[in-house]
């Protein structure tokens, strides 16, 4: 299993994040990612959140080894050509370390605050499926043509290309009928946050069935779980506030031994990557302790 850190962009600043990113890289984590929100993802209406693409660029520029991911960009916030060109340039900054995560978007309040249509779930998912096809074509083909319900490309180009021959694209979300089907058809990886190991195992089974229908080898899709970390109960509430009980099924809690057992359960459930999801106020002491005590016990 591989380990990473997922950093929320609310109630913080680039200087604080840069310190956290470089500390995480020095601890040996192999992945660091950012989210895509305009408002804080805490249900309070707080609008303090850094923009994702600019933060992704800062992450790429301030690290040298980790894979720099996004979990996940909302397909409804940017035209896929805009996103593809941004990712190609980011991969230049990162010298081939970018992974693009895409999702359908879920936070209705920020859509509505900015006058963007918060489409029904099925429509947002259909938009996501078109978006990933457009982005993939632009990042890998000399020219891309596409005609869909939402997007049209006419011999469109994206130059220069990423450093990577195939920049990985992940799908984020746990919807079993559509989201996992989209992942099976189009994605290099799949990520879901804050669910228990047994729930993760079930979704892996569903993903495998979609792969069978799509005539896809399921082993070609990387599977990742985002989890919180809380050595003490108060650590959970400090980071997640009113969302603490909602995320609790997917939080590593208790002693080092208990955390190791929980990570082992995710591994048995099929997780290849485990990302520690951190948000301000960042639990630096908990991160350091996990790196010093939990990681060595798992390797």
Structural features, described:
There is one protein chain. The protein has 299 residues and is an alpha/beta fold. It has a single domain (2-298), classed as Luciferase-like domain (TIM Barrel, Alpha-Beta Barrel), CATH 3.20.20.30. Helices cover 44% and strands 19% of the residues. The chain is built from eleven helices and twelve strands. It has helices spanning 14-26, 52-62, 80-94, 108-113, 121-140, 179-186, 197-213, 233-240, 244-247, 256-269, 284-298; strands at residues 2-7, 31-34, 67-70, 73-74, 98-103, 144-147, 152-156, 169-172, 189-193, 222-230, 251-253, 273-278. The strands form two sheets. Strands 1-2-3-5-8-9-10-12 form an eight-stranded parallel beta barrel, surrounded by eight helices. The chain has a two-stranded antiparallel sheet with strand order 6-7. Helix 6 packs across helix 7. The chain starts with a strand and ends with a helix. The mean pLDDT is 97.
Entry keywords:
two-stranded antiparallel sheet, alpha/beta, 299 residues, TIM Barrel, 12 strands
The portion of residues assigned to helices is: 40-55%
- Unreliable spans: none
User: How many structural units, i.e. domains?
Assistant: 1
Strand adjacency order, main sheet:
1-2-3-5-8-9-10-12
The span between the termini is: 9 Å
Report the biggest beta sheet as strand number plus sense, adding barrel if it closes. Answer: 8 strands, parallel, barrel
Topology of helices and strands:
Elements: E1 2-7, H1 14-26, E2 31-34, H2 52-62, E3 67-70, E4 73-74, H3 80-94, E5 98-103, H4 108-113, H5 121-140, E6 144-147, E7 152-156, E8 169-172, H6 179-186, E9 189-193, H7 197-213, E10 222-230, H8 233-240, H9 244-247, E11 251-253, H10 256-269, E12 273-278, H11 284-298
Parallel strand pairs: 1-2, 1-12, 2-3, 3-5, 4-5, 5-8, 8-9, 9-10, 10-11, 10-12
Antiparallel strand pairs: 6-7
């Amino acid at each position: 299993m591989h380990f990473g850190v997922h950093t929320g962009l609310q109630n913080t600043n680039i200087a604080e994040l840069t310190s956290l990113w470089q500390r995480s890289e020095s601890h040996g984590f192999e992945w660091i990612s950012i989210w895509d929100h305009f408002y804080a993802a805490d249900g309070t209406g707080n609008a303090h959140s850094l923009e994702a693409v600019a933060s992704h660029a800062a992450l790429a520029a301030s690290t040298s080894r980790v894979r720099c991911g996004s979990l996940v960009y909302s397909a409804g916030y940017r035209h896929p050509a805009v996103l593809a060109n941004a990712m190609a340039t980011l991969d230049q900054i990162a010298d081939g370390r970018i992974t693009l995560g895409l999702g359908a978007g879920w936070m209705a309040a920020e859509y509505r605050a900015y006058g963007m249509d918060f489409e029904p779930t099925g429509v947002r998912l259909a938009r996501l499926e078109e978006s990933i096809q457009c982005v993939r074509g632009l990042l890998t083909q000399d020219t891309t043509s596409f005609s869909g319900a939402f997007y049209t490309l006419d011999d469109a180009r994206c130059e220069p290309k990423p450093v990577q021959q195939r920049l990985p694209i992940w799908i984020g979300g746990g919807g079993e009928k559509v989201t996992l089907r989209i992942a099976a058809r189009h994605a290099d990886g799949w990520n879901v946050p804050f669910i228990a190991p047994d729930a993760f195992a079930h979704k892996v089974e569903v993903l495998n069935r979609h792969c069978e229908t799509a005539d896809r080898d399921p082993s070609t899709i990387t599977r990742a779980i985002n989890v919180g970390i809380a050595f003490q109960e108060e650590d959970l509430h400090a980071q997640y506030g009113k969302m603490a009980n909602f995320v609790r099924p997917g939080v590593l809690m208790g002693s080092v031994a208990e955390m190791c057992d929980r990570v082992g359960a995710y591994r048995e459930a099929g997780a290849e990557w485990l990302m520690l999801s951190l948000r301000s106020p960042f639990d630096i002491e908990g991160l350091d302790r996990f790196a010093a005590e939990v990681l060595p016990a798992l390797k």
